[in-house]
Amino acid sequence: MENQMFCFQCQETAGCKGCTRVGVCGKKPETAGLQDLLIYTTKGLSAVTTRLRAEGQPVSREVNHLITVNLFVTITNANFDDEAIADRIEKTLSVKQELLARLQDRTNLPEAALWNDARDSFAAKAATDKVGVLATENEDVRSLRELITYGLKGLAAYMKHANVLDHENEAIDAFLQATLAKLLDDSLTVNDLVALTLETGKWGVDGMALLDAANTETYGNPELTKVDLGVRKNPGILISGHDLKDLEMLLEQTQGTGVDVYTHGEMLPAHYYPKFKQYKNFAGNYGNAWWQQKDEFEKFNGPILMTTNCVVPPKDSYKDRLFTTGAVGVSGCQHIELKADGTKDFSPIIELAKKCAAPTELEQGEIVGGFAHAQVLALADKVVEAVKSGAIKKFVVMAGCDGRMKSREYYTEFAKALPKDTIILTAGCAKYKYIKLPLGDIGGIPRVLDAGQCNDSYSLALIAMALQKAFGLDDINKLPLAFNIAWYEQKAVIVLLALLHLGVKNIHLGPTLPAFLSPNVAKVLVENFGIAGISTVEDDIKTLIG
Ligand code: SF4
Ligand code: SF3
Question: Which band of pLDDT confidence, cut at 50, 70 and 90, is reported for residue 168?
């Protein structure tokens, strides 16, 4: 049967090959087509901005932000709203036309840079063989183009979060756009694209460093924190996603309203920042990773604000309580827009919360986290001593994402099977597979050290580099450190490329290797970086821990 769509950007892609009729995530063919066209148009715009820069002409901050948010919109589980995506294509085309008019040299621009049409032609254009993943015929070129595109999507998401906190880096935007433009260039060889993949990892490190600076300069350094898992008696608002600025505005606006604020999924690490601890109504964390939201949002009883991916198309039981903002969209759900002064008005959410029952309790207890670089480095002497004394034998980085597949229970079993003298370093929502287990501590150091969100994997890299220095090693791979990373969506791709850039070898990636890696591209990663999949818990404990 002919494909209705083609998408293979996430770990849950159908049959580990590609979603061709409807997304496992719930993405419909029309939405997939519009997202493909948004990427195509954004690459076209990037070809124009890159030419402008080459001519010595400036590119505005607004255009840089348009491009990063466009990429963010197409990340898995970010946006299911066809109208919103079509609006962005229209906006991108109109900006592109303005910039084209400013170019001195318009010769030899790619077709995507010159294409322009009206909204009612978008679906037809998306269906042509010029747009979408399969527009590239050579499977290795396609694989590398998509690997880079997904890395850039992750980088764009992190840039967006840094940008809302007034941290900018024009060099990263220029690289991102020049690279998008290169993905339209048929003269690039497989070797060129391999080099570009690795270069993307370098900029991934810079992007995560920018976001780390933005977060810590604005909200302080994450610190050892106990996060309550229970509920209070007031009505609540549940906030999910990664956007700390949205959280800050929501906490400000809920002061004195009698409404509590809870985090879900990737927003959990917000509790680790000193700034957010000032808010008495910042109640705790409710539930688990993104994929359990259908059940947990229903039981929460109050409104939910999705600030980024990962949103799942909602059930009717709570659809009227689900609000989106930023790059997120779900048709039929209210979207909170950014106002011209840079603020957002969350009063519709707060007013609705006041009429809702308090959340239904899911569990009691607490989890401990806040082990980003500053907190771990504050404990460095203790950690180094524990390694020297043999109390800690090995660190295992188990960062990344969680997901629906049963095969991910591997990570719970792996954490349980680790010897008691190992420490898990984590970031991202992968932690929900083991952070509530009673894994204990080693001389007061918890056996699971959570640095934060997926972007805080940067902290894990800084910690590894500090340990390398403390032990006087010339190679990061000589540390007693193993990598067993779970991936799901495209932010994990930029984290992976960043780690490769930092010289980390022998990363195990699961629960399956990306469908977008062609056999030849996978071979390059295996031969040069020792990337491997996972097998059984028993075998992997032997391989990784010894
Ligand atoms: Fe399929 Fe993942 Fe693409 Fe959704 S994002 S359509 S699940 S590959
Ligand atoms: Fe990814 Fe949804 Fe969990 Fe940020 S964002 S880690 S899956």
Answer: very high
Q: Is the CB of 146 under 6 A from ligand 1?
A: no
Rounded-to-integer distance, Cα 465 and Cα 481, Å: 11
Compute, in angstroms, the gap from residue 192 CA to the centroid of ligand 1.
Answer: 27
So what's the architecture of 375-544 in CATH?
Answer: 3-Layer(aba) Sandwich (3.40)
One DSSP character per residue, 167-178 reads ---HHHHHHHHH
**CATH code of domain 225-354:** 3.40.50.2030
Mean pLDDT, range 315-338, rounded to an integer: 98
Residue 1 pLDDT more than 70? Answer: no
CA distance 203 to 170: 12
* CATH 3.40.50.2030-classified regions of the chain: 225-354, 375-544
In 278-397, alpha helices (H): 293-300, 316-319, 347-354, 373-378, 380-388
Q: Is the pLDDT of residue 470 over 70?
A: yes
For residue 274, how far is its CA from the centre of ligand 1 (angstroms)?
Answer: 37
Q: And the tokens for 335? A: 């979207």
Output the residue whose Cα is nearest ligand 1's atom 2: 10
Residue 236 in this model has a pLDDT that exceeds 70: yes
Is the CB of residue 24 below 6 angstroms from any atom belonging to ligand 1? yes
Average pLDDT, rounded, for the chain: 97
Report whether pLDDT(5) > 90.
Answer: yes
Ligand minimally distant from the alpha carbon of residue 157: 2
Q: Is the bond into 429 cis (omega within 30 degrees of 0)? A: no
CATH number of 14-218: 1.20.1270.20
Q: What is the pLDDT of residues 355-407, one digit of tens each?
A: 999 999 999 999 999 999 999 999 999 999 999 999 999 999 999 999 999 99
pLDDT tens string 435-451:
999 999 999 999 999 99
The finding on whether 36 has its CB within 6 A of some atom of ligand 1 is no
Contact call for residues 286 and 238 (beta carbons, < 8 A)? yes
Answer yes or no: is pLDDT of 117 > 80: yes
Among 4, 5, 6, 9, the mutation site with the greatest number of ligand 1 atoms within 8 A of its Cβ is 9
Closest ligand 1 atom to residue 5 Cα is 6
State the pLDDT at residue 252: 98
Packed helices 139-164 and 244-254: angle between N→C axes, nearest 10 degrees: 30
Where exactly does CATH 1.20.1270.20 map onto the chain?
Answer: 14-218
Roughly what angle, to the nearest 10 degrees, separates helices 139-164 and 519-529? 70
What atom in ligand 1 is closest to the CA of residue 10?
2
Helix (H), strand (E) at residue 379:
none
Q: At which residue do the structure tokens 């992968």 appear?
A: 430
pLDDT of residue 2: 84
pLDDT at 546: 87
From the CB of 491, is ligand 2 less than 6 Å away?
A: yes
Residue 82, phi then psi, degrees to nearest 5: -60, -40
